[in-house]
Amino acid sequence: MASTDTLSLDGPPPRRSAPAAPPAAYVPPPPLKGTALILGTIALSLATFMNVLDTSIANVSIPAISGDVGVSTSQGTWVITSFAVANAIAVPLTGWLTQRFGAVRLFTTSIVLFVLASLACGLSPNLQTLIAFRVVQGAVAGPMIPLSQTLLLASYSKARAGVALGLWSMTTLVAPVVGPLLGGYITDNISWPWIFYINVPVGLLTAYVSWMLYRRRETPTRQLPVDTVGLALLVIWVGCLQVMLDKGKELDWFNSSVVVALGVIAVVGFALFLVWELVENKHPIVDLSLFRRRNFTSGVIAISVGYGVFFGNVVILPLWLQTQMGYTATEAGFMTAPVGLLAILITPILGRNMTRLDPRMVASIAFFIFACVSFMRAGFNTDADPAHIIIPTIIQGAAMATFFLPLLSLTLSGLPPERIAAASGLSNFVRITAGAMGASVVTTLWDNRSAMHHAYLTESISNYSSNTGEAVRSLVAGGLSNAQAVGYVERLLDRQAHMLGAADVFWMSGLIFIVLMFGIWIAKPEKTARAVDAGGAH
């Protein structure tokens, strides 16, 4: 065989080709400063706030939407379910999409598409069209939250990463509380399409500012094969799980063949998805290898379980106030809104000092405060006045301020820059799914415990009970008929049963937070990067 190094008889010897230079390593851009940093922080926070707001703002508007499009309220709940399913599927795809298209391009495109989908939702003439555009809205919203986190971390120096995550976490926690309050006000005083229209000016401004500030800070891209099998399995198991969680209570859970079928498909699809992504596929669409990292796994478990319990309590508290305590939707909203007061005050201070603190200790403090708040609420009774109800809500703001920041710090610490988007997307996916599960489990548990207490209390109420007879006679003497008096006693009984059921839920929540307070010490934060080294994302 002729060697390429031998002389040619027809001319000068061929020139030896230089070896190909290895691709240059990605060097993250320097942190933003001054006005650019302020504008970038506001734009990214607004994108997060707008996204999270849309997961809850439609909840209180379902009766109005259902009435306008001529369907039942149960059918109208698909407006919420369709968004949640599409969003849950899209969030874990963020890492793959970022590598394919770039973080900045994907983020700004997602915002623009979200604005267009929001406009289409408001203009929808019927339920089918509205659900279709809510699916689109949820899908394009998927990358927005994890990429806002990624870009925000890249905007700050490593020493100030705690401040960046503090600001980000504040918008994530406050938005679910503001959503029902804002949605109720808009529906009552304007009209339901405006819960979608308000996204248009905010989204366009956010997209413009983000693109102008970050377009020269694009992350590297590379051609990746499309993991069609993994994507199909992800759609199947996440979609079935989300529909099962949303419709389980309405269909009486596993007494329904539909729920059983959804559960079986979700479990089988999840098992196949794990095998395919971890074993069979060299280019997984979701980077499950992140769970091999001790800090990522422990951080994700803690933040997801804690958020699931927190979100479940956020759901039942206003429900109890409205259905059992006689509060209007707006009044119940005002009872939960002050949760952000202490969070706004504490978060910036904590962010500036996060480098000097052990994130496990800060997270333990958060879980301890959450537990105390839960136990305080477990002591509520049917005579609780607004002052007693609002005090635990205000205190809970301190837990919110110390909850997200240290756990995000643990979850993302030590990761290289190119894995931040994937890690953020995956952790947010698990957290969002845990929130949906928490809401379903807590509301079902509340109903079951309330029914149990109602049955127990009813045992002491009968025509042969002297106390019952005396109460009925007293009400009849006050001007009620015998039937009205008996009905009044029954309503008091039901009110007390639901109060006891809620107390059981709050007690259980407090115990879970106590377990998390000690469980987080499984993590082992890196001594050199306690405040979200973010894998050197700066």
Mean pLDDT: 79
CATH topology of the largest domain: Growth Hormone, Chain: A
Strand content: under 5%
Number of strands: 0
CATH class of the largest domain: Mainly Alpha
Shape: globular
The parts where pLDDT drops under 50 for at least 5 residues are 1-23, 528-538
Total domains: 4
Give the fraction of residues assigned to helices.
Answer: over 70%
User: CA-to-CA gap between the ends?
Assistant: 52 Å
Task: Name the structural class.
Answer: mainly alpha
| Element order: H for helix, E for strand | HHHHHHHHHHHHHHHHHHHHHH
Annotated CATH architecture of the largest domain: Up-down Bundle
Rg: 27 Å
The CATH homologous superfamily of the largest domain is called: MFS general substrate transporter like domains
Main beta-sheet strand count, sense and barrel state: none
User: How many separate helices?
Assistant: 22
Salient structural properties:
globular, 22 helices, 538 residues, disordered N terminus, mainly alpha, Growth Hormone, Chain: A
Would you give an account of this structure?
The structure is a single chain. The protein folds into 4 domains: 28-225, MFS general substrate transporter like domains (Growth Hormone, Chain: A, Up-down Bundle); 227-284; 287-449 and 502-538, Growth Hormone, Chain: A (Up-down Bundle), CATH 1.20.1250; 452-500, no CATH class. Helices cover 71% and strands 0% of the residues. The chain has helices at residues 34-56, 62-69, 73-76, 78-90, 94-101, 103-123, 127-141, 144-155, 161-189, 194-197, 199-214, 228-247, 257-280, 294-323, 329-336, 340-353, 359-378, 386-401, 404-412, 420-458, 466-477, 482-519. Helix 1 (34-56) crosses helix 9 (161-189) and helix 9 (161-189) runs antiparallel to helix 15 (329-336). The protein starts with 33 loop residues before the first helix and ends in a 19-residue tail after the last helix.
